[in-house]
Amino acid sequence: MQNSEILRFENYLRFHLTEIQEQLRTNVESESDRIWSTKWGSSATVLKEYLIRGREEITSALTRIQEGAYGNCVSCGHEISQQRLKVVPWLKLCIVCEQECGHQSTEDAYEYRRPEITSWG
């Protein structure tokens, strides 16, 4: 992967990490959340856990960029396709290793949550 592409991914990851950190700082449970929480459990807690997991995944991806290992599978070392990284930039497993681990495809898991990055501005 070219340095310019890695820099674009890094900038996107840093931007998204800042968004998550801001959301975690301002994540205050509303009155409707308290009512829902009483009956069904806390949606704020679920959101917070989701944001924390996202922060950890992005931080890990940024570490791999600094180490020069970004875009390579942490399991087998093979290159992860840029097309997959454009969908989920913090991926750490190639599709083969992901399937061998029995995980649902990360692209499928994020299909309705993350639009593909089409503009790198």
What does this structure look like?
The protein has helices at residues 3-26, 31-40, 43-67, 82-87, 95-100, 106-110. α1 packs antiparallel against α3 (43-67). With 121 residues, the chain is mainly α. It has a single domain (3-110), classed as Four Helix Bundle (Hemerythrin (Met), subunit A) (Up-down Bundle). Mean pLDDT is 81; it is low at 109-116. Helices cover 63% and strands 0% of the residues. It is built from 6 helices and no strands. The chain is elongated and about 50 Å long.
Task: Kindly summarize this structure in a few lines.
It is built from six helices and no strands. By secondary structure, it is an all-alpha fold.
Q: Please count the beta strands (DSSP E, at least 2 residues each).
A: 0
Q: N-to-C SSE series?
A: HHHHHH
CATH architecture: Up-down Bundle
Q: How many DSSP H or I helices?
A: 6
What sort of overall outline do the alpha carbons produce when their principal axes are compared? elongated
Distance between the termini: 18 Å
Average pLDDT figure: 81
| Fraction in beta strands | under 5%
Low-confidence stretches: 109-116
Radius of gyration: 16 Å
> What's the structural domain tally?
1
